[in-house]
Amino acid sequence: MKKYDAIVIGAGHNGLTNAAYLAKAGLDVVVLEKNEYIGGAAVSRSLTEGFTYSNCSYVCSMMRQSLHRDLNLTKYGLRIVPYVGQMYFGNGKCKWGYWNPDVEYNNARSRNPHDADAMARFFTDLNRYAQVIRKTLLRTPPNPASMKPRDIMEILYLAKEFWKLGEKEIYEYIRFFTMSAVEFLDDYFDDDLLKASLASAGIIGTAVGVHSPGSAYILLHHVMGDVDGNVGAWGLARGGMGAISNALAGAATDFGAEIRTNAPVAEMIVKGGKAAGVILENGDEVHAKIVVSNLDAKRTFTKIVNKEDLPEDIYNRAKNFKFRGSSGKVNIALSGLPKFTGAPDNKFLNRAGVMFGCSLKSMEKAFDAWKRGKWADELYIEAVIPSPWDPTVAPPGQHWMSTFIQYCPANLADGPWTPEKRDAFGETVISNIERYCPNFRDLIVHKEVRTPHEIENEVGLTEGNIFQGELTIDQLLFNRPFPGYAQYRMPIKNMYMCGSSTHPGGGVSSACGANAAREILKDLGKTNVVPEDDCNDD
Predict the structure, then answer these.
(1) How many helices (H) and strands (E) does the chain have?
(2) With the CA atoms of 506, 509, 515 and 517 taken in that order, what torsion angle do they form, in degrees rounded to the nearest 10?
(3) What is the pLDDT of residues 94-129, one digit of tens each?
(4) Which CATH architecture is the domain 3-47+57-79+238-321+470-523 placed in?
(5) pLDDT value at position 81?
(6) Nearest in space to 438 (alpha carbons), one of 339, 345, 336, 334
(7) What is the spatial distance between Cα 447 and Cα 445, in angstroms, rounded to a whole number?
(8) Residues 157-172: what's their mean pLDDT?
(9) Residue 310 near residue 64 (C-beta atoms within 8 A)
């Protein structure tokens, strides 16, 4: 029976990145994917004739450009196109903005000169705070309890970068980490609709409210990426998010990796305290010197690793790892382009993000409903319509609309999710959009409704959590996934993790997969294979 050098469990984008770098270094690698398609949450699927949905993740802002270049993903057809604007709707009002700072300043000044002047200060401060975090994305976190030279040097590196902020900024930075998104935004802006649109980045995919302490920090996670060097920009992949996974798979297979679909892993084989392979659900065994899990921390240690093979504290930490699923997704095929009430007919805004329910009050009420195991009548919805510029995702003259919904509970107060409850949730989303587009329902050709139940069962994300675990301060850096195991090496020898439950966390960045590959290759005596720090903003 063939024995591989490495098995990677799960063909999500981090698993594919990990496999690509291991194969590039000369390892014989196999990726095992439970579904018939690759990509995990970063996938493009045709569920109705002529339309291609990014039916889970839908936006690219975190993809590390050094990895894109190093793996030559352009060769495999990957093209990221940035947003050029945004529209936001709330309290019966519509406002819009542009990514070009000069255009946006004039646009904002015509409405509120104070907020227009504050915008530059806000993004300057936010990006300055983000730079400290950006410089950690492609670095392995230190173990603060270790006296190893590597850990000491990394702690000193982080301290140096932190002190570069300066005395005043350090005080503000520490304050920032404890603030709510609303408190932080109150320091800059007057307009509640504008504040709500910006506060949304502090709640996306996370079970906190806009008034929750710590939600200000989560704002940073959404400005840490870049598209074509534009820091903080968001972009869409031509052909849907599956284009990212397909490009990574192309690189991996060109380097010699093997990718198997319809190969769900049931159990990890552990012999003498060492990972030795996996057993598939059909009973087949696949053996390797190294096993890498791209699954989340809970699924890895409570589903595929036997409890008796783990230290008791690790099993308990995995069982209690925070997910608290709070997101849903509705993909909608449309016979025509929607016309939103109050929005200008502007070609730039056809390449815009669209936000519905931008009201601080309604967003907090939706969070309160989530805490009670319900979804609110008025939801926060983040939408995008890629089809005006991407002809590959819809037939000519027709359109595809992606909607991401916050807050959708993973656990309902009145019992488990059923198809009837799923459809009722989808109807609430459509009704919310209709408030700002009266003929919207008439345009619907097909829709796919995904609650946390569908996301967990189809994609494998526990509770449908898009980040494989919440990005709260207690689950970041050297605490992700668990203290003492943040350097991708797990308590079982020759076992590693590479998914978003590890540093730096969720988002389509490929950073977790690349960082894990670097540590694996270091253990094998192979260095300088994976780029480390691509942030040159000093």
Answers:
(1) 17, 20
(2) 110
(3) 888 877 778 888 888 888 899 999 988 988 888 888
(4) 3-Layer(bba) Sandwich (3.50)
(5) 86
(6) 339
(7) 7
(8) 86
(9) no
